[in-house]
Amino acid sequence: TAPEESPNTDGIDISASNHLQIHDSFIGTGDDCVAINGFSSYINISRVLCGPGHGISIGSLGKGGAYETVEEVHVEDCTFKGTMNGARIKTWKGGRGYARKISFERIRMINAGNPIIIDQTYVNRMAAASTASGDVEISDVSYKGVIGSSTDARAVYFNCGDGAGCRNIVVEDVEMTSAVAGKQLFAVCNNAHGTSSADRSPRVPCLLP
């Protein structure tokens, strides 16, 4: 645990590691509850209560044009309570490598900000954006059974780069409401390709084929 306003207080920070299990834990911090960094794979996270904090994050990856990879990360049966972000993937513009085969299943959001977010053009407030071309490739990411409440009207945000973008994004059985009475939730997609359930809230019609 750490105070909500304390910077750089990741709960668990993973790098260059594989075959890890994180389960049955409470993590409340001023930064990521769990951060999964480059060259990590086969990470299973289950039954974690995260909050406060910045959610469970893949990345950031590719800072300064670096080549980094993350794959086979599976988050399930977790709760985000009062977090700045929820299920998050963040990569730097100009980075290389990939983030793939990532799933978030049976996730509960309680007054969470940015519940579902991919940012392929991430910029840390302490560092300038890269001017290099290219992106860390993001593919095969699924969000299934995400429920609860969002403090942001933009509950789903897929901000993918101008190149290949994000591929095979699946949004299924996501059912969230606004933490602010009377507000409707919506989704925003930039160059994100995939499929979504048509009759859920928020609807995600902006995914490209």
Automatic annotation (TrEMBL):
GO terms for biological process: carbohydrate metabolic process; cell wall organization. It comes from the Eukaryota. The active site is at 54. Keywords: Cell wall, Cell wall biogenesis/degradation, Glycosidase, Hydrolase, Secreted. Pfam families: Glyco_hydro_28. It is found in: Secreted, Cell wall. One of its GO terms (molecular function) is polygalacturonase activity. This is Polygalacturonase. It comes from Linum tenue.
